[in-house]
Amino acid sequence: MAEMAQCKETHRVHLRDSTLREGQDVPGVDFSEEQKIGIARLLDRAGVPEIEIVAPGRVFQDVEFAKRLKTETLRSKVSGLVFASSSRCEEEAETVCRWLDNLDLLMPVSELRKPCDRSVKTKLLLDALEYSLHFPAAVGVGFPHSTQTSAEFLLELSRKCEDKGAKRILIYDTNGSSDPFAIYDLIKSLKVHIRAPLFFHAHNDLGLATANSLAAVLAGADGLDATVNGLGDRAGNASLEQIAMILHLRGLETGVSLDILKQLSETVARESGIQMSGLAPVVGEFVATHKSLGHLEIPALFEAFDPSLIGMERKIAH
Question: What CA–CA distance (Å, rounded) separates 66 from 61?
Fold first, then answer.
């Protein structure tokens, strides 16, 4: 409880929605430009402060969409990713910075992923960061496989990037293998030494993405990545609707309007073709439906939140 109170007093949690980036990596999902525009408008209407739209493997293709989105005059900032080890990193970074508000340079920190040598990783990232900081976009750095390397190397690289001028540090649980206790300890240990905003990106391979994201916030993380319906690679990512509701119930501000979450969920399900289970937390069809006779006297006692928060009504099943 003390951790929650401290977190509430010290900062607002910045949510970055990655649906239009991570969603494209789901088998069978290929959003059209018009579908992307519609989802982006809804995210903006919901008060999501940042929308990630450029993937590191599709930079120039996704930038074309960024140009179109620019005409929408959204309140949400838009961001994208570039691999610092890419042979076209400078060209990609310059192009992204011309059309986006935020650029995050990625360097996989696992020694099993090229470039394998830590000193090479460090040099490439710092060189890319120094180059990119000349452009108007806010430039941060992100570390895929953060939970698959030593905390010492992660801290060393983070501090060097911060000293160079990185505007934020992104920690990725890329294969979704971590747990809330480990994430809490990792974020807590980094937060002690890093002044730049610290973000966390969770994957859901073990069903822990939302729990890991909450643990990161309680440890001091300033921001989280999430996707509508948890859409994303393999088992997906932390769910935006779950994260927004959980933080709201704990008194933490995100700026996200809860009453838009159901519409967001239904829209992304329709446009992606990936349907939500009726048992899905927060937005599932059955979340406010009661059938057990023991629940019917005081149904609200069996609900984690008032369903009217997301525009749903309590139902009694027969």
Answer: 9
Task: Tell me, yes or no, whether 300 and 193 share the same domain.
Answer: no
Burial of 112 per CB tally in 10 Å (0-12, 13-18, 19+) = exposed
| Residue 305 belongs to domain spanning | 288-318
Nearest Cα residue to 221 out of 239, 247, 255, 258: 247
Whether 279 maps to a domain, the answer reads no
Asked, for residue 278, whether it belongs to a domain, the answer is: no
Query: What does pTM read for this prediction?
Result: 0.95
Task: Indicate the DSSP class of residue 12.
Answer: P
Same domain, 261 and 189: yes
Beta strands in the chain (DSSP E): 14-17, 50-54, 77-83, 102-106, 138-143, 169-173, 198-202, 223-226, 289-290, 315-316
- 33 burial class (0-12, 13-18, 19+ CB within 10 angstroms)? exposed
**Same-domain pairing of 212 and 317:** no
**Percent of the chain scoring above 70 in pLDDT:** 97
With contact defined as beta carbons under 8 Å apart, do 97 and 103 qualify?
Answer: yes
Tokens describing residue 178: 């971590």
Tokens linked to 88: 């076209």
Contact 129, 166 (CB under 8 A): yes
Residues 58, 150, single domain; the answer is yes
Q: Give the whole-angstrom CA distance, residue 69 versus residue 218.
A: 34
DSSP string, 196-208: S-EEEEEB-TTS-
State how many domains the chain has: 2
Q: How many CB atoms lie within 10 A of CB 262?
A: 18
Q: Give per-residue pLDDT as tens, 176-215.
A: 999 999 999 999 999 999 999 999 999 999 999 999 999 9
Reduced to 3 states (helix: H, G, I; strand: E, B; else coil), residue 218 is helix
